[in-house]
Structures are given as C-alpha cells and as structure tokens.
Amino acid sequence: MDSALERIRVLVVDDHPMWCGAVARDLEEAGTTVVGTAGDGAKALRIAPAARPTLAVVDLHLPDMSGVELIAGLAELPDPPHVLVLSASGEGEDVLAAVKAGATGYLVKSADREQLLDAVRRVDAGEAVYTPGLAGLVLGEYRRLSARTEGAGESSSGQAPSLTPRETEVLRLVAKGLAYKQIASRLSISHRTVQNHVQNTLTKLHLHNRAQLVRYAIDQGIDGDED
Predict the structure, then answer these.
(1) How many helices (H) and strands (E) does the chain have?
(2) Where are the 4-aspartylphosphate modifications (predicted)?
(3) Contact in structure between 175 and 198 (CB atoms under 8 Å)
(4) C-beta of residue 74 within 8 angstroms of C-beta of residue 45
(5) How far is residue 68's CA from residue 75's CA, in Å, rounded to a whole number?
(6) Using an 8 Å Cβ cutoff, are 107 and 119 in contact?
(7) Distance (Å, rounded) from C-alpha 131 to C-alpha 123?
(8) Is the pLDDT score of 227 beyond 70?
(9) How confident is the model over 187-205, as pLDDT tens digits?
(10) pLDDT tens string 13-43
C-alpha cells in the first residue's frame, strides 16, 4: 500500500451510481479511506462536516446544483478539503470556473486509474494537478488576474491595495497551508473571523479563491516564516 494514499480521507460526489462506485472502489483498493459518497451536492454538504474528508473528488454536473457551487460550499467548511474535479468536460470555461471556486485539481474522465491515483495523492498534498493541455489554460488565467490586480487593483499612489497587519498574518498562514481552524487556534481568534479576513483580502486583491491567495502571497514574499 502507498503510505501517502493511506492517510487520505476521500469524499466522492457523482450522480452516476456506477461511476461513483467505481471511483470509490479504485480509491479504496489503493489504500485511501472513502469516508462517503454522494449523488448530489446537498448530500455532500450534509455529510462532509462529520465525515471530515481531506479531499473531495467532485463531478461538475450534479442534479441539484453545479459542481462549482458545491466546491464553493466545501470551501466554507471549518476544515475544507482539497478538491479534485473529475469531469467529462474539458471545456475551458468549466475548468476556470472550478479553479476560481477553489478546486486545485482537474481531470477529465478519460484519465486512467493510475492518473487518478497520482492526482489524488498530489492534490491532497496541496499541489495543483490538471489533465495535460489544461495546465496552460489555468496558468494563463493566473497571469491575466495578476495583470488585472497590478493595474485596476493599484491605488492612485501606484501601490498595491494595503492589507491590515492581521490580514497579512492570516494570508501568511494560509500560504503555509494551514486550515482555517488551525489559523484560528494559532491567532486566538474565531474561525469566522479568519473567514472574514480571508474574504476581505480576496476582495481587496480582486482574487477569487484560496489557491490564488497562495500564489499572491508567494509572489509578494508573504509566505515565509516570521518567527
């Protein structure tokens, strides 16, 4: 068994029972713990808090909500899981919408078992993983957002939008990979306060999700230790 896979707790969300079951079976046989399966977004959001997945494998087309809405909902959990999209669609709009909502991996369903397991392993470790051909699309979007932030986001004095000391500290811990609950504990503030700081920072920087915040922090040198 792969020790990296054994520690991963997975939630599989897909409205096709046979496909959902096949993915869950492949993951369990490889050593992961499948903590739940769901055929719709409502069930996924209902069981996730108690199941505590570290990673969610999500289809984009669900009967009650879009996969993008589900990804955004998972991101609001106290301990949000990493999200790997497994979709039949390789359309650019779908990929970018998923990434903006918080997904850090995107595979099309033509991926084989080994590609899926490799993506699960890497996304759970915090890496960004995309089906070949899609990575360039996502990188191009990051560059476009960066250019927009440097332009429209700058103040009249030519400086980037200013963050408060607390926002900067929260951003530094987000970039280090800490979950919101861990950040709240370290800073002795509530989980909700952490979420508010993150949302304020996203608004100021004209960014959309945690992955983009991490990239911004790295670009600005905010991700290092201050201790």
Answers:
(1) 11, 6
(2) 59
(3) no
(4) yes
(5) 11
(6) yes
(7) 13
(8) no
(9) 998 877 888 788 878 877 8
(10) 999 999 999 999 999 999 999 999 999 999 9
pTM (two decimals): 0.64
Radius of gyration of the chain (CA): 18
DSSP assignments along 160-198, one per residue: PPPPPHHHHHHHHHHHTT--HHHHHHHHT--HHHHHHHH
Strand order in the sheet with 105-108: 33-38, 9-13, 55-58, 82-87, 105-108, 129-130
pLDDT digits (tens, 9 = 90+) for 138-170: 556 555 655 554 554 444 444 456 788 888 888
Measured on CA atoms in the order 105, 106, 107, 109, is the torsion positive or negative? positive
pLDDT digits (tens, 9 = 90+) for 46-85: 999 999 999 999 999 999 998 989 998 898 888 889 999 9
Q: In a 3-state reduction of DSSP, which class is residue 61? A: strand
Q: Rounded to 5 degrees, what are φ and ψ at 157?
A: -85, 0
How far apart CA 33 and CA 29 sit, in angstroms, is 9
Other C-beta atoms closer than 10 Å to the C-beta of 181 total: 14
Q: Across the strands, what pairs with 10?
A: 34, 55
* Residue 39 identity: G
Q: Dump strand ranges (E) for the chain.
A: 9-13, 33-38, 55-58, 82-87, 105-108, 129-130
